[in-house]
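Journal club prep — side note

Before the paper discussion, L.F. wants everyone to see what a predicted structure for a comparable chain looks like in token form. Sequence:
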Amino acid sequence: MKKFICLLVIAFLFASCGTKNEESYFIPKDAVAVMYVNLKTLSEKSKDLDSKNLSINTLIEDKAPEEVKAFVSEFMTSENLNKTFRKEFILGFGSFKRLSGFGGLALPIKDAATFEAFIQPLLEKLHDLEKEENVGKDKDFTVYSTGELAIGWNNKTALIIGANNYAAAELKDLTNLNRAETILATNYFDDFFDVKQDMGLHITSTPLGDAFDGLLNAFAGVKVNLEDNNLSYHGSFEDDHIHTNTNLKLNKDFTSLLGYKKWMTTSYSKSMLNALPNSPLLLAKLSIDPEAYFDHITSLTDNKVLPVQAREELKKNLERANTESEREIGMSTKDIAKIFDGSVMFAITEGKTVKDSVYDYNYYTGEETYTIVDKKVPNMYGVIAIKNKSKFDNLLAKIQEKGAPITMLSPNYYEIEKNSYMVITDDLIFFTNDVEKAKEINTNGKLANNLSDFEHKDKLSHSIYLYTKGNIAEISNDFAQSLSNMYNPYGRYNTYGSDNTMDQFKDKSIAIYDKYFGENHYFIDTDGGESFTYTKGDKNSLIQTVLYGDELAKTMNTLMDEIKNKEQEVIENDDITETDVDAVTEDDEDPEDIGILVIDEDDESVYDIEETVIEETESN
């Protein structure tokens, strides 16, 4: 088996008596990543799922190897799983030990005998397993292992460990950990395990500090502390949405390098909403402080976390950029930063459907064919808030002097290359490919049907916000293809000989996604991020997600079957053609009527025959 650095699920929890569960005592303190899956909450949320009627069951029955069918039908049943596992937490981890990786899972089981009966069919499929009994802590573990994989269990917990080598030894070491050597002794896991969440992930840099701090200083001159950088993620399937939450905590060194707490802001100019259309399929918003960001970049020249060479090079580059900016534009780089408010918004609406040509080129025959298709071209709108219009006008004039493809249509109204438009008002710059909306902004300063009454306006109070809904996936795909065709001279061609399977699957998968999912909201701030993905239908978000994946798998399988059937038809037609040719060759005694002649290039008499035929043709 190949290296098994796995980290599938891990967890910890408070058991019903209020103490931490058994499995958390097998997760080492030096784990870089820890995950958990809450079997109890997932079981409760999936109780109304009709798992027996899922399409995946039919797919397994029709397509899976016999041993997989047997394992699923006999052992992966709800009855067997409930009999084998406690509904608590599955835990998993990944660790770098002696600069080599190992990791694994800790599973909550009901008793040793039941788990052994459950796992035995799998063990029988693995070759060259070594069995050890009465090993590990209290000598109550049974272990089956190869060099890279070990499976062991006692009466409460099963461990599955993968390593570069000596997996059994790693497993036995885990069973002998005392509390001070486990994740329970760390301070960065204190708030991680949340019994109300369905799953969680925690990544920390602390175990890497001892190994790499000195190396970075010695070889790169970087005096950065790698410890105490932590990222935690939680996800939960709620009634009508999937919720995720991510928290980021960086140490002093990394905070000083990134400086994001100084320049990430949440404010924005309210007039920006007046320039964006209502009911967007996508809305994105970014808020930063340009001056603070410029000051942070400048401050890095004195940040001793960086090596002196990097600081000096950064200082030279900043000075060079400032000199060139003053010479070319008449403004310093900081003066340019002061022009902008730091708020940016971008929106997409459905736009219009146009006809487009998709070409196919046969490189063997030189034949080019094409198909007329419908393509959705989205309307795009961008707004950048400004503080000082007169200074921006001066900046724009300098840019035009340098030959930028910007044509003035009227004061403050410009056309940019490739049918894009820009309008400048007192406090914002408006960009769009929708000429009608550009004219409206130029005339009225705002859109009649604008985003000022956006129902999710409260969510704009984040540094970064992204909102999507509806068929945004389809429009985004068409937009990406349009850009490809625009800038890639070969983008209009399909690959020769390719089928349109993926296009069919793309179209169907977009429709399936729209059937099960609605709006999406994503936020990012200085301390982390959060997301809400809303589902449709009368079932909770977990069941809807399972049904979505099941229908997607069924659709892909159907398309693959159709491809195989078409390929088989082609093969059968080719066989029929070859049979007809063979029959003609055998029955016809006149060489002139033979339709196929196989030529041996080494036989010179062939060329004599060819010359004779040519001479006879000319004489006739």
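L.F.'s comment for the group: The first helix runs from residue 39 to 45. Keep this in mind when we get to the figures.
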